[in-house]
Amino acid sequence: MKKIISIIMCFPFILFGQQLNFENSISISSGADGFGRPRIDLTNDGPIIIWRKDSTPKVLRASKWNGSSFSQPYDICTSDVLPSSWDGPEMATKGDTIYVVFTSTATTQSSIMLLKSFDGGTSFSDTIRVSENNPSHKFRMGNIKIDNNGNPIVSYMQYLLNWSEPKQIVNRSTDYGNSFLGGVNASQSAPGEPCDCCKASLVLDNDDIYLLFRNNNSNERNSYISKSTDGGLTFNLVSDLDDYDWIVNGCPATGPLGMVNSDSLLIVRRSGATGNDEIVINNISKLDLNYSYTRNIDPVLGKIQDYPDLTLNGDTIFIAWQDNRNNIPDCFLSYSTNGVENLSLGIKFTDSLITGPKLNPDLVFKNGLIHLVYNNNVANSIEYIKGFFGQLSNVQETSINNSLNFDFDILGRKNNIPFNKLIIKKRPTN
Q: How many Å separate Cα 322 from the centre of its chain?
């Protein structure tokens, strides 16, 4: 099968749309309260933010919206649990139900633990072990989603004690996190093995469960998707998400994330297959995992874009990431109220009064408001910012499908994904 490149030519024009405006940022936590990798989600009362406190005693902390302001940071676990690992924690909410997963080193081998709250984060349970109590294995890189019945489904990586034989595991509960059914290898149908330090993510669509992960097939570190149609008992359908192979000796330490978008999945991820580390977006069929396009969002040559996240509701889409286009890492946001074809180029949403690295963006959108958090590594703080739509005009783009088909790379090299609005499709040749 040859790869045929279909170019969608783009012509900007003026539309009267909605301009995104931001309120001033709010410092949620700093200094002794900790500022490690914040995550944000929404409860019935509004946003809740969790993070790691990495100084001793190490704990997980939270701050929640009380109707007029964010609460003072408070512990959601005890220090003897020893939350660890740069990759967590992760959180999922549904109404006033909150589940948090993280790596713990309190056990003989590192394990995946869960905390839960049914009162919107006012109180949390004791820790519950998710990964198996197996002395021959260690576990880390947890992620979590909530099914339609309010039960947690957790993904994590399993290794032997020497970090060999990595597997991407999915484990679900049917009793609201009190116990788990047992891990299922969700990456076994992919060639090679999962990339050993790239966290996976989950997408749920009724009984269908999708695991998104980076793979390692002799240093070909492409992004893959694996599908279960029986509620996570088996994962038999798998697909490579990349047109071009990313060959890299070291682990990129970043994985794909996705959400359901009508009859498809919208997936964002980092790829360096072009020789340029960039954030790209895929549209994937929920049914057969074939994809209709791969696009750059806001390519910046010679820089590193990383750690993407996305949220969407209907045709309104937000994608956040960090990159060093100005030679200092910062956080950027692309958005559209008119579907993926009209995604904006990246805009900076962080506090411009303080110069220095700003990292690890996370976001959630609901009821016309976008909520974002990030690390300010100069102030050693976690910053929260809220955005809303005004009534100003803005420039958007539309696409006219004048397709030109080539069976070669347009820059004369094998691995290249061109700029924004270039669509790359796999098509069979006659």
A: 12
SS3 state at 317: strand
Neighbours of 356 (CB within 10 A): 11
Q: Is 108 left (phi over 0), alpha (psi -120 to 50) or beta?
A: alpha
- The Cα diameter of the chain in Å comes to 65
Residue whose structure tokens are 């340029």: 276
In this prediction, residues 87-109 reach a mean pLDDT of: 96
Model confidence pLDDT, tens digit, residues 353-380: 888 999 999 999 999 999 999 999 999 9
- Other residues' Cβ atoms within 10 Å of the Cβ of residue 76: 24
Q: CA-to-CA distance for 55 and 342, rounded, in angstroms?
A: 43
> Position 107: which residue type?
T
32: helix, coil or strand?
Answer: helix
| Spatial separation of the C-alpha atoms in residues 227 and 163, rounded to whole Å | 25
Look at residue 39 and give its three-state secondary structure. strand
What pTM, to 2 d.p., does this model score?
A: 0.87
pLDDT in the model for residue 88:
87
- Terminal Cα distance for the chain, rounded: 10
**Residue matched to tokens 């290249």:** 416
Q: What is the mean pLDDT of residues 228-241?
A: 96
Strand pairing category for 59-64 and 74-75:
antiparallel
Distance CA 406, CA 3 (A): 8
Residue 106 to residue 114: CA distance in whole angstroms: 13
* CA gap 187, 199 in Å, rounded: 13
pLDDT at 10: 36
What pLDDT was estimated at residue 391?
Answer: 58
What's the CA angle centered on 101, arms 137 and 159, to 5 degrees? Answer: 15
| Residue pointed to by tokens 């994962």 | 235
Question: Do β-strands 316-323 and 305-313 pair in parallel, antiparallel, or remain unpaired?
Answer: antiparallel
- What ranges in 153-210 are assigned the alpha helix state H? none
Q: Report the distance separating Cα 182 and Cα 187, nearest Å.
A: 15
Average pLDDT over residues 308-320: 96
Of 97, 96, 49, 57, whose CA–CA distance to 77 is shortest? 57
Query: Residues 251, 198: contact at Cβ < 8 Å?
Result: yes
How many residues in the chain?
430
**Location of structure tokens 């794909």:** 256
Q: Which sign does the torsion angle of CA 349, 351, 356, 359 carry? A: negative
